[in-house]
Amino acid sequence: MQRGKTFIISGPSGVGKSTVLHELFQGRDDLYFSVSATTRSPREGEVDGVHYHFLSAARFRELIEADALLEYAEYVGSFYGTPKKLVDRAMDEGKDVILDIEVQGALQVAAKRPETVRIFIAPPSWQELERRLVERGTDSPDKVQKRLLRARTELQTAGVYDYFVINDTVENAVREINAIMLAEHCKPADRMDILNESGAETPTRTSLSSR
Ligand code: 5GP
Predict the structure, then answer these.
(1) Integer Cα distance of 100 and 9 in angstroms
(2) Using a 6 Å cutoff on CB, does residue 102 contact ligand 1?
(3) Which parts of 66-159 fold into alpha helices (H)?
(4) Cα of 30 to ligand 1 centre, how many Å?
């Protein structure tokens, strides 16, 4: 069985990531959503263990000290981190793992596991992002301002990602993410079994370009 791949999905607060991910996961048992740990308080409707593992700051520190997090970062006054063991288990089961994490965490994962695919979801425009964040109404005006400030720096670092998806409509964004995931599974490294079975010499970029 082919080991699963990890895909990071980042994007500024209010870009509509949760809606896109919700759609992406419809009817897919080959995908695993990594439920993060956080010290932030639950929003209305958020369920512990489903949307996040809501932890105290002390418990979060324990996880850091036990090296149980693949990455972690501070975001607008709260800590967020990815539990390592569950990600690895899902990949061992052949599932693709989706990490919904911000840019600092994405950089940490890229340094530790360079094979991770990084996708950035951007809004169609800055004005649209402001509108969505204010109209969402889940954060105080002060937090909205802090999230917008953070969004600006995140958009500036988006160039280091492997792919850029524009969330103009949920349908388009999901289609593009599915296309990226499919293409990543067509890389030669994923298809070595077939090449090896045929006894073919494994082509490399250098051997191809020297022909
Ligand atoms: P929210 O509070 O809106 O749920 O999330 C705030 C930000 O934290 C989002 O950009 C989200 O992607 C990010 N985030 C969620 N979980 C994690 C995590 O485990 N690690 C990191 N680095 N960021 C996370």
Answers:
(1) 5
(2) yes
(3) 84-92, 103-112, 126-136, 141-157
(4) 23
64, part of any domain? no
CATH number of the domain that residue 204 is part of = 3.40.50.300
Whether 73 is in the pocket of ligand 1, judged by its Cβ within 6 Å, is yes
User: Does 82 contact ligand 1 (Cβ within 6 A)?
Assistant: yes
Distance CA 176, CA 7 (A): 13
Tokens of 83: 């539990």
The CA distance from 140 to 73, in Å, is 21
How many CB atoms within 10 Å of residue 153? 11
pTM for the model stands at 0.89
In one letter, which amino acid is 124? P
pLDDT in tens, 65-112: 999 999 999 998 999 999 999 999 999 999 999 999 999 999 999 999
The residue range of the domain holding 112 is 6-34+96-209
